[in-house]
Amino acid sequence: MQNINFEYNQQYKAQNKVKLNTEKLKDFFKNLGVAVALIIALLFVIRSFVFTVGEREQVVITQFDEIVRVIVDDIDEPSIKELKSNPRFANIKIQEGKGLFFKIPFIQSVRRFTNQILTFDTSAEEVFTKDKKTILLDNFAQWKIVNPVSFMVNIGGSRETAHLRIDEFLYSKMREEIGKIDAHVLIADKDYVMNMLENVEDYINEQVEPMGIKIYDIRIKRTEFPDATKPSIYEQMRSERQAVATEYRAVGEKQARTIRSEAERNATIIEAQAYEEAQKLMGEGDAEALRIYAEAYNVDPEFYEFWKTLQTYKSVIDDDTTIIISSDSPFAKYIFGK
Fold it and tell me: What's this model's pTM, rounded to 2 decimal places?
């Protein structure tokens, strides 16, 4: 009987111990839940008082949908300086920097905008050149939000709206500029196209400056003829190239004729001058020979006569020559030894 009571007491104590541990565990988790809730509430309160600005961000703070403060990268940016001088935004506080900032909880809201350069890839559209050709043009533009206040006020802070406005101004100006040139200039003349794109960029910047946007670069990604018009355009281009080649050949032939004519004229002049010089030299030589002959004759007339006769024999008589002549002829006196 005593053993039974002892076992019963042991079981009762064990049950009480488990019940006690369970109640302690419940109290622990209850207290932990309260602590976590307090921590979350504290973090929420702290978060409602502070906010951070990242390296790639610009921030606009609004109070009841009215802009009261802006945090930018550079307060010396020209558009930010203009913001200071605009009476419409005179009450806006402008700050520069990154990191932790304070705000009034619950009544002030933070709106974030990137400070990175963004790329807008336009859809391809058809444009018309001066020589009535249709070109499929595909562009892209790189832009940046330089004034988040103007960007938010004028276009609602929407990138999609910004892209629509850039696309509108871009193709409007591109159509105007491309309409002034022929298709081959657009396709082949890179220097002209670069100058044209710079003009387009300046024009768009004038238009989007009130929106707080700045265009940094515009490039033509692709230029090609629409598939439906390619055969006729290629045939027209081939005809034009053939016409140009024919013109070049005609000009070349004309220049060749001019060069040949000039060369022949110069050759005739040179030949005439050479002939004149040769006749002059021959005349001078003959005169000198006559002078020498005259001097020789005056020194020894008989020897001169003998020498002249021998020269005549040499030029007239050879091995096959037969001469019939009178023995008393002066020409034969040296032959017969007279």
Answer: 0.59
